[in-house]
Amino acid sequence: MQTVKMVVTGAVNAGKTEFIRSISDIEVVSTERRATDDTRMIKHETTVAMDFGRIAIADDLVLHLFGTPGQKRFDFMWEILSEGMLGLVILVDSTRPETFRETNRIIDFFVSFRETPFVIAANKQDRPNAWAPDELRLALRQPAHVKILPCVASDRASVKNILLELLYVIQENSEEA
């Protein structure tokens, strides 16, 4: 059996914990704690170290999902959690344009740190004020080859689709190498 490490990252309240909870075959190991800074205006609890979930994709393939904290003060965890990752999901809250700059900072960090296949998941697409993936591409200044996919992190089928698309990107990159 092959075990593959994937990292799920994004700005505060992008939906990282929900994404992992929706798909994990096991109870998610979470480090949610009461928010004590400006984050408390958005949500009551926040991830302070990581989330961990697991899903069996096939009899011979298991994905370990590691969710990063979204707050800048915990960004030292990004490098630690990204060690050995095969792929990256970058979640963006498509209803909050004020988080797009932070999302770009996160993309820049991971792209400059390690050459890793990634997809961008445009989360909260079930809400009426969500920016469409093509609008997000412009806002995030992403080239056409980067997959920006619609997502609803609370929907297992949607999360599964994101992970399958990431596996396709990984496969394409390995064939090109």
Automatic annotation (TrEMBL):
This protein's record includes keyword Ligase: no
Family matches, as Gene3D superfamilies: P-loop containing nucleotide triphosphate hydrolases
Record keywords: GTP-binding, Hydrolase, Nucleotide-binding
Domain of life: Bacteria
A family per Pfam: ATP_bind_1
Homology family: Belongs to the GPN-loop GTPase family.
Protein name from the UniProt record: ATP/GTP-binding protein
Organism of this sequence: Candidatus Chloroploca mongolica
